[in-house]
Structures are given as C-alpha cells and as structure tokens.
Write a structure and sequence with these properties.
It contains 11 helices and 15 strands. The chain is of the alpha+beta class. The chain has 4 domains: 30 residues, no CATH class; 101 residues, Immunoglobulin-like; 66 residues, no CATH class; 126 residues, Glutaredoxin, CATH 3.40.30.10.
C-alpha cells in the first residue's frame, strides 16, 4: 500500500512532490503520536493475565493477555505517566510511559527483578538501578534509593522510588519522605505534582498501635455523613482502596466476607482514592458493599487520608469501640487474626 502511494506521488512531478511527500509522511507517522506501546516477552510464563495501572489513577486498571510468553499493549497518552505492571504473584514492575514511545520488555518469570526494559532513556535507567540493587539487603536498598533521589531529583524514577519506599509502604517513613520531597521541590519549584506531594506529606501522620484514632468527618458516595463517632462496634476497620488497584479490590472482597461472619461486632468504612467517583461507585454496587464508602475524587490529597494516616494501597487501620488502635497496615491473614483476637 505504501509503495503504491509513493509511486503515485512521484508521478505527479517535481513541483508538487515536496508538499505531497510531506503530507504523506505526516499522515503515515502521526497516527501513533498520542499512543504508548509495550511489547513484552517472558520466559517461563507461557500464558496468563497481567494487570497494569497508572499510579496517578488517570487510567483505569487494565489487563494484559499473555500468549506463548508474549504480549502487546497500547494506551492513549497525552503526557508522561508512570504505569505499574502486576504479575500473578503480585510482584510489580514500574514502566515510565511517554506519548508516541514504544518500549520492549524481556525477562524470566523466575527472576523478575532482572527484567530489562528498553526503548526510552528513563526505562533504561530504571532497569540499571533495579539490576544494581537486586541483591541488596532492605537497609542497603533504602540507602541506595535515598542516594539516587538526591543525585537525580528531577527524574520520574525518583518520584516513583520516593512513593514506593517511604510513603506507599507498610512502614512509611514520612520524615525521610519530607526531606527528599524538599530536595525535589528545590530542583523543580514549578512542578505541581511535587508541590501537591509536599502538601500531602505535611498533614500525614504515622499510625501507632495503642494510640487513639484521629478524629475525622466525611461524606460517603450516597451523601451520608460519617465520622469517628459512628465507628463504635467491638472492632472497626477503615480501609484504603482504588478500583484500578487489583490487590486492594481483592482485599475489599475479603473484608466483605468478614462483615458477614462477624456481624454487628464489626463496622467498616472504606476510602477510595479513585479520581472518578463513578469508578468507585461501580465497584461498590457490583460487589454489593453495604458499608459507607468515601470517595471525593481528590485521590491522595483527600482530607480523609490526611486525617486517618492511611498511606498506601491497600492500607487499613483496626481500632476498638474506644478508638484505640489495635493494628494497621495488615494483610488478610493478619487482619483475620486481629479480628479473632478481639471479637469473642
């Protein structure tokens, strides 16, 4: 097809050639300008399904089909974004997307930390950092993350590492996060995302077992007012989730089953950080969630998050009828154990 079009253009003569050729090239090359593409292959993973989500929540949780160890994925994109691919074992792989770019991912299902991503400078740099730190101990890795952020304060990799290691983690370190955010803010004073993160961190507090739950007031997606005073069951749970985060939706369903088992001894409020309240409502209605669900569309900047101290996906806090914190950031097994211990 392309060859026949070129022959036609050439037959029109020299005067019209430059304009026609320019128009042809513009039309043939401009189709993918607003798309980001991923071409991937994994040894030891013949078929299956992967999940992919945008860390900012701007794009819905999506699935990637894997066939004969290969997959292709594309998404419309107007500006750079950070996506995360989730594997069946819940391992995660960050991907830095740019409009019009195509990246290639290759790896081994048994050594996901050694996965290589080529196609853009940022993804190559992230691959190099991941390979360099793959055998480090947790303290060594955190030190390497801090050093990387200090040396590359304007890189999107730094923002990802900051979130994943010091904020959206089971044991957040808000002091370290604030220090690193200040460094990034000085390097990018006009960056709205960094400014928003700095403001968010200023209101976050670390949850501590044995202390009192902070007071909060909010309105759920059905217009009902909710507050700490409403959480007066023997055991109460507040959970953070998002429709685009598979792990949190999975835990949401497990908590749903817990409410049936424990009855009136357990009260739940869930907080969605979806940017679109319709996405939150869709999940709540699909799964017949009976408790109050709070979603104000402000994502990580929601006052509810600042008040409760929830900091990553999926996060939760468990407390008794007097507001005493019994545990926080628990996985499913830990959550069940905590409820069994306190509901007799």
């Amino acid at each position: 097809m392309a060859k026949s079009v070129i022959r036609t253009i050439l037959s029109w003569g020299g005067k019209v050639l430059p304009f026609c050729l320019f128009t042809f090239l513009l039309l043939s090359c401009g189709g993918d300008k607003g798309k980001f593409k991923i071409e991937g292959s994994f040894r030891g993973m013949n078929q299956g399904e992967l999940y992919i989500y945008d860390m900012s929540g701007a794009h819905k949780l999506d699935t990637i089909g894997l066939a004969r160890g290969e997959f292709n994925y594309q998404v419309a994109l107007d500006e750079p974004a950070t996506f995360v691919i989730v594997f069946p074992n819940f391992s995660e792989l960050p991907v830095f997307a740019e409009p019009g770019a195509t990246i290639k991912i290759s790896g081994d299902a048994t050594h996901l930390k050694e996965t290589e991503i080529k196609g853009t400078k940022t993804n190559k740099e992230m691959t190099a950092f991941r390979l360099q730190t793959s055998n480090m101990t947790p303290p060594e890795y955190n030190q390497a993350v801090v050093q990387y952020i200090k040396e590359h304060p304007t890189s999107p990799i730094s923002l990802y590492l900051l979130n994943r290691n010091f904020i959206q983690t089971e044991v957040p370190d808000f002091r370290q996060a604030r220090e690193l955010t200040e460094i990034m803010s000085q390097a990018m004073p006009d960056n709205k995302q960094i400014a928003s993160l700095a403001e968010q961190l200023s209101g976050l507090q670390s949850l501590k077992d044995g202390e009192k739950m902070p007071h909060f007031n909010a309105t759920d997606i059905n217009g009902k007012h909710v507050s700490l005073a409403d959480m007066n069951a023997k055991v109460n749970v507040i959970m953070l989730w998002a429709s685009w985060n598979y792990e949190s939706v999975n835990l949401l369903n497990q908590i749903h089953r817990m409410t049936t088992h424990y009855g009136e001894n357990l009260k739940v409020i869930t907080v969605s950080i979806d940017a679109n309240i319709k996405d939150c409502r869709r999940i709540a209605e699909r799964d017949s969630l009976k408790w109050s669900t709070v979603c104000d569309g402000l994502m990580w900047e929601s006052p509810m998050i600042r008040k409760t101290g929830l900091s990553y996906l999926p996060d939760n806090v468990v407390f008794d009828s007097q507001g005493k914190i019994l545990g926080h950031s628990l996985n499913y097994q830990e959550l069940v154990r905590k409820l069994d211990e306190n509901i007799r």
